[in-house]
Amino acid sequence: MTDLDKVDRAILAALQTDGRMSNARLAETVGLSETPCARRLKRLESAGYIERYRAMLSRSALGYGVVAFIYVRFAVHDRTVATRFEREVQAIPRILSCHNVSGSADYILQVVARDLDDYGSFMRDELRSLPGVTSVESSLSLREIKASTGLPVP
């Protein structure tokens, strides 16, 4: 982060707000002309500060009324089983995120479902059959207070 100046940080912050922003608008937002702005943007992409661009989709418009956080525990901590579990989790689209964590759970998953019946089917038919899973505990989101708006840009 030592090679990022104030303008680089402004570019990163602006793009997190609107990833489809045109170069002309981005340049105006950060106080540059278009060519230097495009050069800086290319450098930030090449240096790995910007991994990719994507759209944020509406869960409700797509019919996902349930968001759950699932605490997954393994009885046996075998690297081969954990690797299989992680590979299979990556292939399930309704699992939005998966974190290997410390504490009483081995993994925490964020999952979406259409409704409670759909969530129950997912738990019974998919999650509990994944390699290594011996117990699961769920917390259902009642209301989202803050959604990810991107990383803080120091």
UniProtKB/TrEMBL annotation:
Key words, A-Z: DNA-binding, Transcription, Transcription regulation
Alphabetical list of SUPFAM superfamilies matching this protein: Dimeric alpha+beta barrel, Winged helix' DNA-binding domain
CDD domains associated with the record: HTH_ARSR
GO terms (BP aspect): regulation of DNA-templated transcription; response to amino acid
The name this protein goes by in its record: Transcriptional regulator, AsnC family
Example of a GO cellular component annotation carried by this entry: cytosol
Keyword Lyase: no
